[in-house]
Amino acid sequence: MTAGVRSGLWVTLEGGDGAGKTTQAAALEEWLRGEGREVVRTREPGGSEVGMLIRDIVLHHRGDIAPRAEALLYAADRAHHVETVVRPALARGAVVIQDRYLDSSVAYQGAGRVLDAAEVRNLSLWATGDALPDLTVLLDLDPAAARGRLDAADKPFDRLEAEKVDFHERVRAAFLGLAAAEPDRFLVLDATRSPDELARDIRDRVGAVVGDAAGN
Ligand code: TYD
């Protein structure tokens, strides 16, 4: 994070719906707790009380939401979440493991809803005072395979999940483009690999960063 004093570590997980972010966040949390670290596991949208209200609108409102309004709602959730949850956790030295952050807005609202990517990113940077994670894990998965996983889970689709496959193909391409533009921040993994293999790669990378932060 570029603004503000911090001593913790901030890891975000990104990828299409059904890529396995929740499984990997849980595995990373378990490992870090075993290492004796304080872990704050959180998500966007909905990582705060206000965020839960916004999450309900963006995911479950019946009917259209104008693309710019949708982008602003995610940014509002993000502003409150970073200020009230993420910054305090980092300031006291915790590891924050976060399901989705601003890269999701650039991919879903930018490429998916076809808003200008730089504008969407700048909106989130304004909302958060330029906060960027130390590491972003991108679980990359073909939308057709992801759709199979979501169907198998047999849960009703939310507003974004219900979008057509070409929307999700644009989202995937945008995530890969973001990762290519910031190779130091991103770790890109093939989400068709086994959960254990993915967890090991994520642990290796986080372990290296935690080691660096401790001066090892
Ligand atoms: P998520 O919590 O990952 O869904 P689930 O609970 O089903 O795993 O994300 C909710 C949806 O919100 C997801 O389809 C992606 C979308 N989203 C955006 O469109 N923009 C954003 O900025 C964020 C954070 C999420």
Brief descriptors of the model:
216 residues, alpha/beta, Rossmann fold, 5-stranded parallel beta sheet, 56% helix, binds thymidine-5'-diphosphate
Order of helices and strands: EHEHHEHHEHHEH
The total of beta strands comes to: 5
Shape: globular
Q: What fraction of the residues are assigned to beta strands by DSSP?
A: 5-15%
Quick check: average pLDDT? Answer: 94
- CATH homologous superfamily descriptor: P-loop containing nucleotide triphosphate hydrolases
Task: Just give the CATH class.
Answer: Alpha Beta
The proportion of residues forming helix, as a percent range, comes to: 55-70%
CATH names the topology as Rossmann fold
Give every kind of bound small molecule, once each: thymidine-5'-diphosphate
**Order of strands side by side in the largest beta sheet?**
2-3-1-4-5
Largest sheet: 5 strands, parallel
Uncertain spans? none
Description:
- By secondary structure, this protein is an alpha/beta fold.
- The protein has a single domain (9-215), classed as Rossmann fold, CATH 3.40.50.300.
- Helix content is 56%, strand content 13%.
- The chain has 8 helices and 5 strands.
- The chain has helices spanning 21-34, 49-60, 67-91, 102-112, 117-128, 143-153, 165-181, 195-213, and strands at residues 9-15, 39-43, 95-99, 135-140, 186-190.
- It has a 5-stranded parallel β-sheet with strand order 2-3-1-4-5, with helices on both faces.
- The longest helix is centred in the middle third of the chain and has 25 residues, at 67-91.
- The chain is globular.
- The protein binds thymidine-5'-diphosphate.
- Residues 17, 43-45, 59, 74, 99-100, 104-105, 108-109, 158, 160-161 line the site of thymidine-5'-diphosphate.
